Structure formats: C-alpha cells, structure tokens
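Possible regression after last week's pipeline update?

I re-ran a chain I had predicted before the update to compare outputs. Posting the input and the new output here so someone can diff against the archived version. Not blocking, just want to make sure nothing changed silently.
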Amino acid sequence: MTFYSSTQDLVSQLSAGTLKRGDIKKMAKEIKKDHDLAMELWETEGVNARLLSVLIMDKNQLTQEEINRLAQDMEQHDVDQRLTIAEWLMANQLMKSKKTIALLQSWEKADAPILRRLFWYHQARLRWSGQTSPDNTEQLLDSLESDMETADPMVQWAMNFTAGWIGVYDAEHRERCIELGERLGLYKGDPVSRNCTPNYLPEFIDMEVAKRAA
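New output (post-update):
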C-alpha cells in the first residue's frame, strides 16, 4: 500500500464528503490488487470503502461462499448504493475469469435478490454488447413469462431489461417479448428522462430497433 500510510488513513480519505467516483477509481489504480486490504475496507461498511474494495479484490479468491457474504452485507445499503456496488463487482471482478462467470451464470434462482439481478443484468449485457447471443434464449423467455410479474422489483427491472434486449437483437423472438410487455404492462406510462428510452417493453424494443435500422 504505497500511497497510503495506513488503512485508517485511506478510510479517512474515502469518507471525505467531496470524494467522487472517479477519485475512487484513481485510488484503485494506485493500489492495484490487494485482496487483504479489500477485505479490511469492506468490513468498515462505508459505501466508498466498499466501492474501492471491489476494485482491488483478487477475483481468484472469490468463492460462492464469499460472494454470498458480500451480497448479504450489501443489504445494509440503500438500493442505489447496493446496485452500484454490485455492478462494480460484476464489471471489475465477476466478468474477469471463467470461474466467476460460471458462478454469475448460476444465480437465476439465488437466494439473494442482488445476485439474481446480476444474473439477469449479465444476460442482457451479453446481448447489448454485441456478443453472439447465448443459446439459452428460449429458456430465459420461459422464465421471464412465468416469473417476471411477481419478481422482486430489483430483479424485475433486470429481467425486463433482458427481455428488451432479446427483443431488439433476436428478431425471431421480438413479437414474443413485445407481447410479454403488453401483457404485464410493467413501466407503462412511467416518466422518461430526456434522451432516454422507456422501460416499457413495446416502446423500448421499437425505439432501439429503429435506432439500429437508421
């Protein structure tokens, strides 16, 4: 830990009210990988400390048991903070090795809602990032049709997001995704920020397909 005299010094800096997310990423670049420090920071329970923690963890030391503990700890934070920590964990650790990707792909029925959300968010990402869609689309659609209506709101959003991107990139299943959105009516009529796409599936799919056809 070259740039910080002690963990306490680092935690003090992370607690500064003026700290921005970009500052946390700069700290991570200075520290590089330090799993022991990451776990010390995680145990302080501060949101900035946990964001830095997930950036400097060693992905090779992340087991399912350890991830379950992290997911449980995230429940201490409000929803926005929880989602940010989880998404940083996915982007910076879970998607960086075959072992952790395999864990991520096993979480459709995980006990922790945040892990179920990551499962679905990952499925959506595989499609919108331009990669070849996995061969599990039919299975996902079956699950979406049976489970999305009653899913935890945090998970439901990611399920809907996945259905949207399936509808955009998989013309064969587009009508099925639109019909799902019409039947459930999720997010229909919700306010939409300027330059953003509605979450309501029929509108989302139509707009995103049109963008790609232009």
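Follow-up from reviewer: compared with the archived run. Residues 107 and 116 are 5 Å apart (CA to CA). Marking as no regression found.
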